[in-house]
Amino acid sequence: MTWSFTLGRLLGSELRVHVTFFLLLAWVGFAAYSSGGLPAAIENLVFVLALFACVVAHEFGHALMARRYGIKTPDITLLPIGGLARLERMPEKPMQEVAVALAGPAVNIAIWIVLVALGAGMPFETIAQIDSTGPALLNRLAYVNLLLAAFNMIPAFPMDGGRVFRALLCLKMDRVKATKVAAIGGQMVAVAFGFWGLSTGNPLLVLIAVFVFVAANSESQDVAMRSVARRVLARDAMITEFHALSPSDTLATAAQAVIHTTQHEFPVMGADDHLMGFLTRERLFAALAGDHPRSDPATSVMVTDIPQVQLTSGLETVLDGLHKGAPAIAVCSQAGNMVGYITRENIGELMVIRSR
Hints:
The chain has eleven helices and nine strands. Helix content is 55%, strand content 13%.
């Protein structure tokens, strides 16, 4: 997602597009131009853009339904294989999750009804020519929206049908076990898609298979992690023995600290243990590889926007901060002094220990 940029805001969410989306447009345009010339290339590009407008509408269906339950959607990202609405959290009441999951396919069904009302025909042969410029644009769009709705309702996590399946399983078992069952189902479907894509020479199916397999495993791990996190406080997970930098330390000093310690991030501490920011190894290496002199202060490349939590804060709050991109979460005393910090790495280690 670091390779995506903002197109603007719509209905309270930031609309983003991944740079690889333009590679898809280039591939579609070149393939159509090679077979049918400039008119075919233009028509296919218009079709792809219209298709992704429907995908955006699908994702906003999820976002607007989630908003009814007090869940915000910070951004929606367009990818070559579809769209991704990033909800602040997933609703944990089963029927709320069902409603949010079904809202996306419902939008595609609504678009299909509108297109048919506008005169889109539905001859069966259109579905076999959906990637060609033969059928009318409205006919192709109508079929694609039906296919999107049907495809998303496959009971394979993390697709919408898989989320409905997980929600229904939650009525009979705990959320962690239900997610694991739904994720295994999703990975089995992903393997089937992968073999199908390889046997037919379709790279898009292989790409979808990889995405579904990885996303299912990631979601299962995240739910398991949050289940453990609800029972753990920040003070139980924080790093308390660390090497800190001072505002006067240079990039050369920080480089020596990287060599002599195993830390990946270094807090920069001011007077009275006041946290000024964190210098990460990635930022340090980028600065050393660039035009920054080694005599520059470490503060010149540190991350300053560091979330802070109290010792008694729940670890789930820490996870939310880390998911928003912070390199670490500072754990502070009531006086506001940092007494430790938490990273993704040591949360992962804690989860391994707690799961034994």
